[in-house]
Amino acid sequence: MTRFAFTIEASDGAARTGRITMQRGEIRTPAFMPVGTAATVKAMYPEAVAATGADIILGNTYHLMLRPGAERVAALGGLHKFMNWPGPILTDSGGYQVMSLAKLRKITEEGVAFQSHLDGEKHLLSPESSMEIQRLLDADIVMAFDECTPYPAAQEDARASMELSMRWAMRSRDAFDAGGEHAARAALFGIQQGGIYADLRAESAEKLIDIGFDGYAIGGLAVGEGQAEMLRALEFSVPVLPADAPRYLMGVGKPDDLVEAVLRGIDMFDCVLPTRSGRTGQAFTWDGPLNMKNARHKDDPAPIDAECRCPACASYSRAYIRHLLKAGEIFGAMLMTAHNLTFYQDLMQAMRDAIGAGRLTAFADDFLARYRRR
Amino acid sequence: MTRFAFTIEASDGAARTGRITMQRGEIRTPAFMPVGTAATVKAMYPEAVAATGADIILGNTYHLMLRPGAERVAALGGLHKFMNWPGPILTDSGGYQVMSLAKLRKITEEGVAFQSHLDGEKHLLSPESSMEIQRLLDADIVMAFDECTPYPAAQEDARASMELSMRWAMRSRDAFDAGGEHAARAALFGIQQGGIYADLRAESAEKLIDIGFDGYAIGGLAVGEGQAEMLRALEFSVPVLPADAPRYLMGVGKPDDLVEAVLRGIDMFDCVLPTRSGRTGQAFTWDGPLNMKNARHKDDPAPIDAECRCPACASYSRAYIRHLLKAGEIFGAMLMTAHNLTFYQDLMQAMRDAIGAGRLTAFADDFLARYRRR
């Protein structure tokens, strides 16, 4: 069976559509990966996640290593069996979360020593331990261990951080390749760093290409620089990456971010936004986001979006969903999450179709004008 | 179409099995009604509630009158459309919740004046307003407005409370009957009170029968008296109720309570236990309740119950469910609720089958021995 193949079926400007073929299934690109942090895409049955159109989900190494523990997941048959998701899973390396969540972090050449935000227990995340954890989880796509360069960062700091990540990328490659049977069926992605500096992004890409990866992620964006700056960084970060491998923009983003990034050649995304902001009341629609807790919805018999195929829009009014959210009902989180994940997948499908038809620019213009009108 | 018919298909001692026929569907008895307090059976899609085997659910008048408001629900097409439950719904009268949740209550002959526990706004619940609210919600089974006699209560206090409830029962009957088109398709149940006093229970039953109701509920039990005292009260409370009408034991109960009460002639139940305690980690099984947060489950690949047909037992390990509960994940509440509601419905089906086969006593002996063994 094919371990990993990326087939581009159509291009349109810098954008392309195609599929990644792996042993656990195909991933249509451009792809949005719902986030299943703690072995669950929050408030969703896995079957319902698949029904939205998701081909692959993301799991978080940092969370899973702390609870329930990678060895435990491995003993229980791996993450797919544990959480009942038979399709591909990408796990991040833990590098981002350890910097944003862990306590008493200490970064050395070896890795990141830290204390768990849950119980204060001491841990070390290194290229070797991250690869080991992702192997124990049985991830289909493994991410190299990196340091997410903070924003803002002076160029010399961004360079030092990028160079550390590139040394860690080499060690990740070696550790992954030593993973035996898992390495023979999983894929490894490298992560480009370099902040908002074009020469660092190019240098990082060159080092990653020298090492060789199945796919290339763009790290260190969507960390506070704003959409305009992120898009400017994509202009010089994407073209230096290999054209024949998937390009994954980590942690992005809002619907308009996705469209702008696909236009610039991105193939994969993940973001907590549709799930997290769904739980707190933000519904995404083709006419922009709606705050479903707003009092103007309280007598509205219309669904969130009359044309949406999701279970929330099929059977429930805005008035009902607002009621559930105001009352703090779990079912409100369930319906909002189902809606938002469906919207995200429908947006990805619309972009795949538009690229296939050679009309992505027109689609993007129409989408962005309508989405941003309100 | 039949407004309301109760058909007893088989009897076994005091127990009976049959069906209630109403315009929105049939209710197999003995029946357990999942509680959908705020227009949602918490953490469940309505289709999933139906898939557990529930024929009817309960809505809470007190909660719904305060949020989102009965007029609003009526304007949106009624409770069934609002919450997407097409089958029968029983609404309570608000009498119990106003005593347990509302602030600054004042009981008069007219009714109960109180302030909302949500926003402090002043309201009055009376037989007339309770019937009006339940009509606006479009309940299929409407409960008479009563005072739930506290426990313990001296006999003279229990008498005064019961007599007030009986005067309110008469006013409920009149107000319900004035409900026009709704009265022509809904049913009204009276509620027997009288605490733990046999003569008061008999007198209450007599007054209710004089007024005439479609079904008869036993109120004022499961309020702290304990199972033994409750069962003792059922011995004299049930036989004084009409044999040809459904008997509904309100707010009960644990699985063994259900079995003991069916043995004594009860046809209908409601309780938050399977939903509420599911969310906090208690799983019901034929071998008794399990605390799914317990550390002994953390490496257990077995489902909660290998023979259970629910979605949790079909695809998830005890280890996974414990992980979700410990992590506070919504999906943990979803799986636990689905399991517990399935267990409750399977228990009811097993009792209906046992009554039909004339072997309820043997079933109950076996069930109780196994359930209480651990």
Describe the overall structure.
2 copies of one chain form a homodimer. Chain A is an alpha/beta fold and 374 residues long. Chain A folds into 2 domains: 4-271, TIM Barrel; 272-374, no CATH class. Helix content of chain A is 43%, strand content 18%. Chain A has 15 helices and 16 strands. In chain A, the strands form 4 sheets. An 8-stranded parallel β-sheet of chain A has the order 4-14-13-12-11-10-6-5. In chain A, strand 12 (215-218), helix 9 (227-237) and strand 13 (247-249) form a beta-alpha-beta unit. The termini of chain A are far apart.
Which features characterize this protein?
homodimer, 374 residues, alpha/beta, TIM Barrel, 2 domains, eight-stranded parallel sheet, three-stranded antiparallel sheet, 15 helices, globular
Biggest interface, chains and residues, is: A-B, 34 and 35 residues
> What percent strand of chain A?
15-25%
Task: Determine the structural class of chain A based on helices, strands and strand pairing.
Answer: alpha/beta
Number of domains of chain A: 2
Low-confidence stretches of chain A: none
Strand segment tally of chain A:
16
Could you say what the CATH topology of the largest domain in chain A is called? TIM Barrel
Computed Rg of chain A:
20 Å
Strand order in space, largest sheet of chain A = 4-14-13-12-11-10-6-5
Helical content of chain A (DSSP H or I, runs of 4+): 40-55%
Please, what is the CATH homologous superfamily of the largest domain in chain A?
Queuine tRNA-ribosyltransferase-like
Mind describing the biggest β-sheet of chain A? 8 strands, parallel
Distance between the termini of chain A: 49 Å
What would the average pLDDT of chain A be, to the nearest integer? 97
CATH class designation of the largest domain in chain A = Alpha Beta
How many H/I helical runs of chain A? Answer: 15
